[in-house]
């Protein structure tokens, strides 16, 4: 809580470096304290990975950051705006895009239409042209379609643009969800277990794409079990255990930390 | 391949009409011709009245399709919005002497406002719960129309409702809407306009947002789509369409009784949308026409027609879950594989 207090007066200075600021986040479900006084910062242009055994509170943390749940205590500041109580769609409008642990595509729609749906907040067409389609409308539609196809090309789905999203292979659905989130042109992309259910070759592909995104300067927050992905991608790792931050540091520091190792192996910390 | 096609779209879009635009224009021309010719083919009063009822039902079905087929919200309140439009416009005309088209607009607006109010209250409800809430709204509205005798005259009904005022266009003979053929042109013309408006909206980002809400609300919200607002939007427009249909109905029939807006009307409209194919615009048009004409054709066999009607409905739902439009597309696809390849699933 002391960090939150010290941040309050100098929000401007803090946002120059940090894009997402969580301070003192707590959430209880009945008697279960899913997340307790968790604070962390995601700095602009970096990759933060959140790891931890099952039940460590990672999913709850994601829900607090994306607005699915409101925290019992603490606050979330995104891009200089206090978003603690904002609903998910308003956070998305501020530039917080996400993917889902359990893939949530528009399964009946085509692959291309899934990506085009991601352009919703970026349309700049005069309102009356929604009813009477003028040249500005047609130009904007053509631009959207071209950009959507470029995103599909980036994730390697060019050939499937007209297929139903639900008919894609599992790994391709993951990539499509990332492409759809990228269509928002987010400032921060939050990936909820992107490697879950992928085979090692697919994980390598995913790592390649995410590394490219990082190289372009996109800020990432990745919740993940797959250590190969985490260790190769993250600048900074937050280890959660029993709803609390157990340790936070660089990949090298995390790998050498006895408390982290024992949390994963199920022993009592020394 | 996709590179080539996207490039060609980017270049051709602002310039001349594309093949799909020409096809659209052709279909529009066919619809205009059909509307123009139908009252000339069916000249007796009975069939011209049936044509008018067809046009009114198409308008009702289009309004419901926006809510059910596009926004994915199961709305059983369409009969209430229909009745509100009819009673608001009629009472404004007969009690307050408001000019017809002013009353028409207010009836439409009032029904739309009721739709907005219902969806604001029901915004957290989904599926069966929303269906029950909207059905409850339809029951309450019906009971108010029936029992607020001081205002609506209840089951006694309101009589001698005038038709729309004659239209005097320069250089043309005066068009009197007391004549059913002219009334049909008026209502069918309005319905066609409503169709074109919906079609344009649904082919814009509005359609994408509504479809996203229908497919997965959590996913849609993660893309910045305000699901609650879009549901309210769909309910408002859909109810306003029903309100317009109600205004036309009152001035066409000339008599208003609450029984015309009993909750079974909601289910009839629902059947039109489902039989035709919800989530398409042309589907509810055919569904409404079929389910208006079919009972009339079956009138000769007495009460047995209800059995046949019910059987036909059951068979369509069982054998063609996507409605007539999807069945037609499937047949076209079998006849010519390339023809229907681009139609949406």
List the helices and strands and how they pair.
The complex is a heterodimer of chains A (270) and B (345).
Chain A: H1 2-7, H2 11-17, E1 18-29, E2 32-43, E3 47-51, H3 58-66, E4 73-78, E5 81-82, H4 88-93, E6 96-98, H5 111-117, H6 135-154, H7 170-182, E7 188-192, H8 200-215, E8 219-223, H9 227-233, E9 236-241, E10 244-249, H10 251-255, H11 258-265
Parallel strand pairs in A: 3-8, 3-9, 6-7, 7-8
Antiparallel strand pairs in A: 1-2, 1-4, 4-5, 9-10
Helix pairs in contact in A: 5-6, 5-7, 6-7
Chain B: H1 2-12, H2 19-41, H3 45-70, H4 78-96, H5 100-121, H6 127-147, H7 149-152, H8 180-202, H9 205-215, H10 217-222, H11 227-253, H12 264-276, H13 282-297, H14 304-319, H15 323-335
Helix pairs in contact in B: 2-8, 3-8, 3-11, 3-12, 3-13, 4-5, 4-6, 4-11, 5-11, 8-11, 12-13, 13-15
Strand order of the largest sheet of chain A: 6-7-8-3-9-10
CATH superfamily of the largest domain in chain A: P-loop containing nucleotide triphosphate hydrolases
Structural class of chain B: mainly alpha
Tally of helical runs of chain B: 15
Shape of chain B: globular
Task: Characterize the main sheet of chain A.
Answer: 6 strands, mixed
Question: Can you offer a commentary on this structure?
Answer:
The complex is a heterodimer of chains A (270) and B (345). Chain A is of the alpha/beta class and 270 residues long. Chain A has 2 domains: 1-95 and 188-270, P-loop containing nucleotide triphosphate hydrolases (Rossmann fold, 3-Layer(aba) Sandwich), CATH 3.40.50; 110-185, no CATH class. Helix content of chain A is 39%, strand content 23%. Chain A has 11 helices and 10 strands. A 6-stranded mixed sheet of chain A has the order 6-7-8-3-9-10, with helices on both faces. Chain A is globular, with a radius of gyration of 20 Å. The radius of gyration of chain B is 21 Å and the shape is globular. The A-B interface holds A 66, 68, 87-90, 92-93, 97-98, 100, 104-110, 113, 116-121, 123, 125, 129-133, 135, 137-139, 141-143, 145-146, 149, 152-153, 158-159, 161-162, 164, 180-181, 183-184 and B 2-3, 6-7, 9-10, 13-14, 197, 200-201, 203-206, 208-209, 211-212, 215-216, 218-227, 342, 344-345.
């Amino acid at each position: 809580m002391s960090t939150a207090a010290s941040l309050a007066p100098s929000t401007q200075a803090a946002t120059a470096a940090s894009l997402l600021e969580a301070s003192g986040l707590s959430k209880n479900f009945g008697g279960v304290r899913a997340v307790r006084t968790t604070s962390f910062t995601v700095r602009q242009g970096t990759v933060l990975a959140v790891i931890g055994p099952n039940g460590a509170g990672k999913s709850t943390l994601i829900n607090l950051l994306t607005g699915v749940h409101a925290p019992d205590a603490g606050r979330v500041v995104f891009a200089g705006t206090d978003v603690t109580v904002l609903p998910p769609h308003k956070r998305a409008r501020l530039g917080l895009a996400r993917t889902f642990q359990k893939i949530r595509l528009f399964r009946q729609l085509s692959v291309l239409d899934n990506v085009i749906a991601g352009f919703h907040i970026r349309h700049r067409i005069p309102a009356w042209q929604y009813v009477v389609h003028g040249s500005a409308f047609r130009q904007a539609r053509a631009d959207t379609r071209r950009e959507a196809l470029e995103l599909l090309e980036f994730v390697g789905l060019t050939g499937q643009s007209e297929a139903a999203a639900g008919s894609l292979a599992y790994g391709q659905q993951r990539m499509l969800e990332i492409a759809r989130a990228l269509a928002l042109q987010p400032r921060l992309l939050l990936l909820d277990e992107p490697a879950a259910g992928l085979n090692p070759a697919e994980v390598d592909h995913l790592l390649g794409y995410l590394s490219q995104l990082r190289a372009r300067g996109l800020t990432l927050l990745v919740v993940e079990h797959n250590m190969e992905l985490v260790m190769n991608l993250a600048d900074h790792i937050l280890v959660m255990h029993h709803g609390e931050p157990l340790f936070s540091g660089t990949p090298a520091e995390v790998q050498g930390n006895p408390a982290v190792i024992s949390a994963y192996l199920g022993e009592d910390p020394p | 391949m996709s590179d080539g096609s996207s490039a060609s779209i980017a270049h051709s879009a602002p310039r001349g009409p594309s093949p799909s635009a020409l096809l659209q224009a052709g279909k529009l021309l066919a619809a205009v011709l059909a509307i123009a010719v139908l009252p000339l083919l069916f000249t007796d009063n009975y069939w011209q009245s049936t044509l008018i009822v067809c046009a009114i039902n198409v308008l009702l079905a289009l309004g419901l399709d926006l809510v059910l087929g596009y926004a994915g919200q199961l709305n059983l309140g369409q009969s209430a919005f229909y009745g509100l439009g009819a009673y608001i416009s009629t009472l404004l005309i007969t009690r307050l002497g408001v000019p017809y088209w002013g009353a028409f607009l207010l009836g439409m607006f009032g029904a739309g406002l009721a739709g907005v109010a219902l969806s604001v209250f029901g915004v957290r409800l989904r599926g069966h719960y929303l269906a029950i809430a909207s059905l409850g709204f339809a029951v309450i509205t019906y009971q108010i129309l029936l029992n607020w005798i001081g205002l609506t005259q209840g089951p006694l009904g309101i009589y001698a409702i005038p038709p729309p005022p004659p239209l005097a266009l320069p250089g043309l003979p005066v068009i009197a809407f007391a004549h059913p053929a002219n009334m049909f042109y008026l209502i069918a013309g309005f319905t066609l306009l409503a169709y074109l408006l919906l079609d344009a909206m649904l082919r814009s980002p509005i359609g994408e947002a509504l479809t996203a809400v229908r497919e997965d609300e959590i996913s849609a919200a993660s893309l910045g789509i305000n699901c609650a607002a879009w549901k309210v939007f769909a309910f408002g427009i859909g109810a306003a369409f029903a309100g317009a249909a109600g205004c036309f109905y009152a001035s066409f029939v000339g008599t208003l009784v609450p029984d015309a807006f009993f909750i079974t009307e909601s289910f009839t409209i629902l059947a039109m949308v489902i039989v035709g194919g919800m989530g398409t615009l042309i589907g509810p048009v055919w569904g409404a026409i079929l389910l208006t004409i079919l009972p009339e054709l079956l009138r000769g066999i007495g009460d047995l027609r209800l059995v046949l009607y019910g059987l036909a409905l059951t068979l369509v739902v069982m054998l063609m879950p996507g409605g007539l439009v999807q069945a037609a597309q499937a047949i076209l696809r079998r006849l010519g594989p390339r023809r229907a390849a681009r139609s949406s699933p």
